[in-house]
Specification:
Layout (H helix, E strand, L loop, with lengths): L2 E5 L5 E2 L5 E6 L6 E6 L9 E3 L7 E4 L1 H8 L16 E3 L4 E11 L5 E10 L25 E7 L4 E5 L6 E6 L4 E2 L3 E2 L6 E6 L5 H4 L7 E9 L2 E11 L5 E6 L5 E6 L4 E8 L2 E3 L14 E3 L2 E14 H7 L8 E4 L10 E7 L10 E9 L9
Parallel strand pairs: 2-9, 10-17
Antiparallel strand pairs: 1-3, 3-6, 4-5, 4-8, 7-15, 8-9, 11-15, 12-13, 12-14, 12-16, 16-17, 18-19, 18-24, 20-23, 21-22, 23-26, 24-25, 25-26
C-alpha cells in the first residue's frame, strides 16, 4: 500500500493562489479520504473528500493557509525601528503540516506532508523563482530589482528566505561593502536603508551615492541578487507605504501640493419640544444631533516605467498607510488610509503621471 502524489505546491508557494494537492492510492476497497490539517486548535474537523473516476483525490490548501495568515492581517508589525540596520522577522512564511488519510472497509493508510507558503500572490503568467535571496518586490526573474528611495523618509526592503549563511550588501558604485550579518533561523530579513532621521549614508553603514546605486546581496561571498537603488534627494511630499503582491512593503513619495476634500452630513435631528406659538419666541422646532465627516486627498506624482511597476500593486493592496510627516528627516507615524479609484497608464511613455485618491481616517466630530 502507498499514497502517490501527482500534484503539489512547490517550495515557498504563494499563499493567495490556488494550491492543489492531487493524490491517489493503490489501497484496495478504498471508500474515501480525509485531510487532517494542523494546528488542531485551528482546524478542529477533518475534511472528507472522494476520488474521481480515475481514482484521484483533489484538495485545495488555499483557504486553510489564508485563514492562518489572516490572524496577523497585513499591517506592518515591525514599524518600530531596531538598533541594527537588518533584522529578522516572522509572519511572512508558514509551514502547513497535514495528514492524508485514505480509508477502506478496515483501517486504511496515512501519510504526513508539509508545505511551505509565502504571504504573496502571483498573477497569470508569473513564475515562482528559486532564488532564496530574492527581494519581496517586483521582478521579472527573481534576481534583478529596481527600487526608489526618497531621502529623509523611512525605507526598507525584505529578503525572502536565507538561513545559516553570512550575508553582506555591496555597493558596486563605491566598491564598499556593508557589515556582514549571519542569517537567522526565521529565514526572512528586513534591511532598513533609512529610519527617517538617519540612514546608511549618515551612519556610514553603507554610503549611497546620488542617483543610482548598484547593490548586490551576497551569501557567503557569492552573488545572489541585484538591486538598482535610485536615490531621490530630500523633498516635501505625501509618503505612502503599502503591502505589495510579493509579500513585502513598497514606498513612494507623491508631490507636496495636493487637493483635500472634506464632506460632512447630518446624523439626524431631534424635536426641541419648546411648545411655543407664533409670537412667543418660536425658533426652529428641531435640533441637529451633529455630523459625520469623511476626508479625501487627491495626490499625484511622475513615475518612470520601473517605478510604475512597483506602484501598480498600491491599487490592490489590502494595507495602505500614509506617513504623518510631509517634511523629510522628521519622525512620524503611519496612518491607515484607503486607496479609492482606478489607475491607467500608457506603456509607450517613459514617464507617466500617477493620480491617487486616498480616503483618510474618519474625522472626529462633535455629536449629541
Amino acid at each position: 500500500m502507498s499514497i502517490t502524489i501527482h500534484k503539489e505546491p512547490s517550495t515557498l508557494y504563494p499563499a493567495y493562489n490556488d494550491s492543489y494537492l492531487e493524490f491517489s492510492s493503490n489501497l484496495s476497497g478504498q471508500t474515501h479520504a480525509e485531510i487532517t490539517l494542523y494546528p488542531s486548535e485551528t482546524f478542529t474537523n477533518n475534511f472528507k473528500i472522494y476520488a474521481d473516476a480515475d481514482g484521484k483525490y483533489l484538495f485545495n490548501l488555499k483557504e486553510a493557509v489564508k485563514a492562518r495568515f489572516s490572524v496577523d492581517g497585513f499591517d506592518d508589525k515591525y514599524s518600530t525601528y531596531p538598533i541594527d540596520w537588518i533584522e529578522s522577522y516572522t509572519g511572512i512564511t508558514l509551514s502547513q503540516n497535514m495528514d492524508i488519510n485514505i480509508y477502506d472497509a478496515g483501517t486504511g493508510e496515512t501519510q504526513n506532508n508539509t508545505y511551505t507558503f509565502y504571504k504573496s500572490v502571483k498573477q497569470v503568467g508569473e513564475e515562482i523563482y528559486d532564488n532564496t535571496a530574492q527581494v519581496n518586490n517586483v521582478s521579472t526573474n527573481g534576481i534583478d530589482y529596481f527600487l526608489t528611495y526618497f531621502e529623509g523618509y523611512p525605507f526598507s526592503f525584505e529578503i525572502q528566505n536565507i538561513t545559516g549563511t553570512t550575508v553582506e550588501i555591496k555597493n558596486n558604485n563605491s566598491a564598499m561593502t556593508s557589515t556582514a550579518f549571519t542569517a537567522t533561523t526565521t529565514g526572512s530579513h528586513r534591511v532598513y536603508v533609512s529610519k527617517a532621521t538617519s540612514n546608511w549614508t549618515t551612519s556610514s553603514w553603507l554610503p549611497l551615492l546620488a542617483l543610482h546605486n548598484q547593490l548586490e546581496i551576497r551569501e557567503d561571498g557569492a552573488f545572489k541578487t541585484n538591486i538598482r537603488l535610485k536615490k531621490v534627494p530630500s523633498q516635501c511630499g505625501v509618503y505612502l507605504k503599502w503591502f505589495n503582491n510579493d509579500g513585502g512593503y513598497s514606498y513612494h513619495l507623491f508631490e507636496e501640493f495636493h487637493k483635500t476634500r472634506l464632506t460632512a452630513r447630518s446624523v439626524g435631528e431631534v424635536a426641541t419640544n419648546t411648545f411655543l406659538n407664533v409670537g412667543e419666541g418660536l425658533k426652529a422646532p428641531y435640533r441637529n444631533l451633529g455630523k459625520t465627516a469623511s476626508e479625501r486627498m487627491s495626490i499625484k506624482c511622475n513615475a518612470t516605467s520601473d517605478e510604475l511597476n512597483v506602484i501598480e500593486s498600491l491599487f490592490t493592496s489590502p494595507s495602505v498607510q500614509m506617513y504623518s510627516e510631509q517634511t523629510p528627516y522628521k519622525l512620524g507615524e503611519w496612518v491607515n488610509v484607503e486607496v479609492i479609484g482606478s489607475h491607467s497608464y500608457a506603456n509607450k511613455s517613459n514617464i507617466n503621471k500617477v493620480s491617487v485618491d486616498i480616503e483618510l481616517p474618519e474625522p472626529m466630530t462633535i455629536r449629541l
